[in-house]
Amino acid sequence: MMLPTPQLLIIHQPRxxxxxxxxxxxxxxxxxxxxxxxxxxxxxSFIHPDLIILSANMPEGDGRLYCxxxxxxxVHPRPVLVLLHPSTDVNERINAFRxxxxxxxxxxxxxxxxxxxxxxxxxxxxxxxxxxxxxMPGPNMIRRMLEQxxxxxxxxxxxxxxxxxxxxxxxxYGDLAGDQLIKALGAILADVADDTDFVGHIEADDFLMTxxxxxxxxxxxxxxxxxxxxxxxxxxxxxxxxxYLISTGRGGIRRRVPLISVAIGIVDSTRRRFQSYVDVLTSxxxxxxxxxxxxxxxxxxxxxxxxxxxxxxxxxxEEEPQISGRILVVEPDGAMACLLQEILSLEGYVVEVTSxxxxxxxxARYEPHPDLILLESNLSDRKMDGWELCSVLKSDAAxxxxxxxxxTSHPDQSKALEAGADLxxxxxxxxxxxxxxxxxxxxxxxx
Length: 447
Known about the structure:
Layout: E1 7-11, H1 14-25, E2 30-34, H2 37-44, E3 51-55, E4 57-58, E5 61-62, H3 63-73, E6 80-85, H4 90-98, E7 103-106, H5 111-128, H6 139-150, E8 157-164, H7 166-173, H8 175-192, E9 198-203, E10 206-211, H9 216-231, H10 237-242, E11 244-248, E12 254-258, E13 261-268, H11 277-291, E14 298-301, E15 326-330, H12 334-346, E16 350-354, H13 357-365, E17 372-375, H14 386-395, E18 403-408, H15 413-418, E19 423-426, H16 431-443
Parallel strand pairs: 1-2, 1-3, 3-6, 6-7, 13-14, 15-16, 15-17, 17-18, 18-19
Antiparallel strand pairs: 4-5, 8-10, 8-13, 9-10, 11-12, 12-19
Helix pairs in contact: 1-5, 7-8, 8-9, 13-14
């Protein structure tokens, strides 16, 4: 994998600056050499060097004082400061450290020794700026990589990658298990990347990958395939067979949550001109949000302002549909049924009420179908109770997309979800919780 090119700044008198720059360029770093502090200040206004090498004795002033100035004025991450000092006196060299130098070397110094010491500092800096979980480049190196791409002549694509439902996975199996899943995703990205690609780990399950635009779709597809292939190893057999996790919210509300999948948003430099590295990150995440609308692993290629290009698993941004609000309440308690009808109607929903499972099934089959059914498990019908009605609804292809909220006092929340309910709402419940959950389900109906 590719890493950002290190940036070095040398501040020395002309002959030494040229000599040191010549040897350090051979390390692969981008070297800027200046002969005055004024020139250095001008450069520092628009470049962000990883390391500054400066002479302690400059015609215009003391290099030790310039170390103090850099420490006081440059924001994090500030460069490593290597001071070249002509004195062999230990006390003078120690004093240079007190002024803020990170390292003090003899001046003049053997050019090969200087190169080795600089490489050692850069290696330590790379380790410091790596994500501790995956040891991949972290936010500072991602910023440096994107800034270099923005001013280069290369065309490139940036891929924002994360995991869907990782929070529920962590709540169910623990943070350590979630960390292993994140490390697995990082290993997949490293495997898919070639020598010209960059992969960085921003935080948690948030990754960024850069590649050539013509390779982006193919690599996104490989990431999805490889992750789907290995992700089942991170679940107990029962959850794999069931096909979902159970998320527990406040008040005992439980819902079925899909298994972990990958979402990828892709933007590239051939479609638009990006203003900054923040613009790249934000745009890629916005496109990734479109991919997160799907339950399975998928990717979106495009920009939030235009219709994204369709890929093998890509989805196309569609015009946001108008959210419908037809609710069928199936409740044997007459007083509760009336209360629910009144409250839901005040929220703007079209509400129908019945206490019979047979009637509910008939009403559900009428066009237009209800968008959501609020269902009590304990119904008075002899032929069918709420559990059976839920199973019938979910097994009918024409009705299976109707959200079913099982509002019941039955203590076994798993029974409701196994019957096909999308949400288990234990009675007694407070109305604000009910309204919140109903609103969330109806808003996601068209996803």
